[in-house]
Amino acid sequence: MNNKSMNNVNHLLLLLLFFVVTVVSQGHAPFSIVKEKVTHLHFFYQERLTGDNPTAVLAAKPKDTRVDPSNLLPFGAAYVLEAPLTEGQDPNSKVVGKAQGLGVSADQDTTIVVFMVDYGFTSGEFSGSSFSVMSRNPLLETDRELAIVGGRGKFRMARGFATLHTNYMNITSGFFTVEYHVVLFHYE
Ligand SMILES: *[C@@H]1O[C@H](CO)[C@@H](O)[C@H](O)[C@H]1NC(C)=O
């Protein structure tokens, strides 16, 4: 690089620095952009696939005669979900929120669902806030992890992860209880 272009680079760097300082010093953001918080959440997801109010319903399935009719999750099936989140493992324990969204069967070979789900809370410190999951969810693995990509309310700009452990599973009744440990980085 010659002297002139070095000078140009220096100018550019100075301008950039000025811009960064200006943005950081303006206190007009609707949330604190500098104070990141870390929140841990613990709750249980209660799945009930049978009965009068199933927590997941088949909304679309592939139009393909090769699909085995006994397979509830053929490649291409889409389920709409609304499931209670409880404080304890007991399905009758206090409801603290609900999971709402879509689970799509998106693997040609095994049972892997991709979750696009909003986890909203209705009690406690985070009542009215929710975080958003967009992640693969291999349902049949006892332990798995979901990616958290955003949030609302107190969970604005959230990102993080949830580790899942299936505590109870009855394939016949379609009753499942899944324990969630969540780590969230957010700004409110
Ligand atoms: C699983 O669910 C079926 C159908 O509701 C029930 O008959 C059976 O006792 C349950 N199994 C266990 C281990 O709870």
Please compute the radius of gyration using only Cα atoms.
22 Å
Bound ligand species: 2-acetamido-2-deoxy-beta-D-glucopyranose
CATH superfamily of the largest domain: Allene oxide cyclase-like
The fraction of residues in strands falls at over 45%
Low-confidence stretches: none
Highest CATH level, the class of the largest domain: Mainly Beta
Fraction of helical residues = 10-25%
Structural class: mainly beta
- Give the averaged pLDDT, no decimals: 87
CATH topology of the largest domain: AOC barrel-like
Notable characteristics:
single chain; 188 residues; mainly beta; AOC barrel-like; 1 helix; 9 strands; 12% helix; 47% strand; extended; binds 2-acetamido-2-deoxy-beta-D-glucopyranose; apoplast; secreted; Dirigent
